[in-house]
Amino acid sequence: MNSDFIKQRNRFKSATMKRIDVSEESYNHVTNLLATIAKPFHVRKGEYLQRAGVPATQVHWLASGVARSGFFNRDGVEMTLRFYREGESATTLTDLISGESGQPAVQFLIAETPIHGFTLDWKQASDLRAQNEVMQSYHLNIAMAGLQSLAQRAYSNGETSAQERLAAFREEYPGLEARISQRAIASYLGITPQYMSRLRREAEAGLENPADDQPEAREA
């Protein structure tokens, strides 16, 4: 039983219960189960938690720090899909499922800041879930919350201007902009770092008419 894992999980109990809509009893129950397989890990900024092209076998629960997930498109350009913060599991579920049969991960997970957290072996966690109805229900709620997040991301991508996409990013990830690189945010928004700088300058200057989202601004 990893007591530090339980201690760290308790720091995020209220926020997680609200985010995925589970009871305190359920949260505690799942935390105690996962504590039996949790192992601490530390990575520095820029280090990979998961590499594309290598089978994914671990869930990374973050006690501190920020991780970013993404993939490389056919032109080799890095595309950012989402960010993970304290109290969340940095996980690409489809890659974990593919990893069960030894297939390589499509997405990568990289540390945007120094990270302290705990790894949970996917196979061991799956075995625990198969034997426990409370854990099954808990992870179903996580899956539903994940689908809602994907839907919101799809809506944000549909915004016609980079300014609107930046506003959506700030709403979804409050306070994150000051913690991570401008390059990472630009990748998430589908614009160049240079255009990101322009948007920030306009916002700071309080311009009423932000620059048009030119086609070249959407380049990664």
Helix content: 40-55%
Q: Estimate what percentage of residues fall within beta strands.
A: 15-25%
Rg, nearest Å:
19 Å
Low-confidence segments, given as residue ranges, are 211-220
Order of helices and strands: HHHEEEEEEHEEHHHHH
**Shape, please?**
globular
How would you describe this protein?
The protein is of the alpha+beta class and 220 residues long. The protein is 46% helix and 19% strand. It has 9 helices and 8 strands. The chain has helices spanning 3-11, 13-20, 24-34, 93-99, 122-130, 133-157, 162-172, 182-189, 193-205; strands at 39-43, 48-50, 58-64, 67-72, 78-84, 89-90, 108-111, 115-121. A 4-stranded antiparallel sheet has the order 1-8-3-6. Strands 2-7-4-5 form a 4-stranded antiparallel sheet. A hairpin with a 5-residue loop joins strand 4 and strand 5 (78-84). The longest helix has 25 residues, at 133-157. The chain is globular, with a radius of gyration of 19 Å. The relative contact order is 0.14. The model is unreliable at 211-220 (pLDDT under 50).
